[in-house]
Amino acid sequence: SQTIHQWPATLVQPVGSPLSLECTVEGTSNPNLYWYRQAAGRGLQLLFYSIGIDQISSEVPQNLSASRPQDRQFILSSKKLLLSDSGFYLCAWSVYGGAKNIQYFGAGTRLSVL
Amino acid sequence: DQQVKQNSPSLSVQEGRISILNCDYTNSMFDYFLWYKKYPAEGPTFLISISSIKDKNEDGRFTVFLNKSAKHLSLHIVPSQPGDSAVYFCAASAINDYKLSFGAGTTVTVRA
To answer: Quick one: how far is CA A4 from the chain centroid?
Structure first.
């Protein structure tokens, strides 16, 4: 069966520090991968998605970047965090070319920028 | 531009009664619709979905209804249980699109 791992679960970082959140998927090949952010009391905002290695699309201009160094690994980064980067970050995957676009989510990372 | 809208931010229902969650969409290219359930500090979990070629899909206590002409879908939970207390997100995707558009969510509270 497929599983998705996301870490760390909680992170407290000072303003101006770098960020690296990692997500890996097991049990499937060539998945579509996604990064979302949920701000407090709000819905899910798509940040990045990837349909293959080095194929990454950005949905919202911001202080963040994403990379996919391996087929089942997706990394969210920032060189210098802003206060507004605080939020709940979610990684998700879906079957590449699947007829049903069902996305499966990781447990999320709570990021607090102070 | 919010293409998927959940106009009720919260819903309170008594245990054993029916919960009805509503969702409206504006993009006529959407052909696949999903509901997710989310507990605090956890990722959303897939609940149920429906294709645009159907108007109803049922899975146990959960039923999703789709009205394409009205661009409206709803999720019925019968009977509601305390464990159903969570945030429910409606989502939609268009043909050959990798992305999902999410609504803002409805927080359901099931009272004992």
So the answer is: 11
